[in-house]
Design a protein that fits this description.
By secondary structure, the chain is α+β, with helices and mostly antiparallel strands. It contains two helices and five strands, in the order βαβββαβ. The longest helix has 9 residues. Keywords: Iron.
Length: 73
């Protein structure tokens, strides 16, 4: 299964599942990243951290460790 970390810039993907638990999963969900939502990857930093995305019209930065917990289709 692919994760958000593997997505190149300029692609839009759909979230299938959040794998994290506890406060990490809560932080991801508080950003509006939930199952079924579309995520557009705007920019990836040179070393891959952070990943800048657009979710529900909001521009967010996601840490690489958090992006590994977001499975996409």
């Amino acid at each position: 299964m692919r994760t958000l970390k593997d997505v190149p810039c300029g692609e839009t993907v759909k979230v299938v599942k959040l794998v994290g638990t506890g406060p990490v999963k809560r932080r991801i969900m508080d950003m509006g990243i939930t199952k079924g939502v579309d995520v557009y990857v705007r920019k990836v930093a040179p070393l891959g951290d952070p990943i800048e995305v657009t979710v529900r019209g909001y521009e967010l930065s996601v840490r690489k460790a958090d992006a590994e917990m977001i499975q996409i289709d």
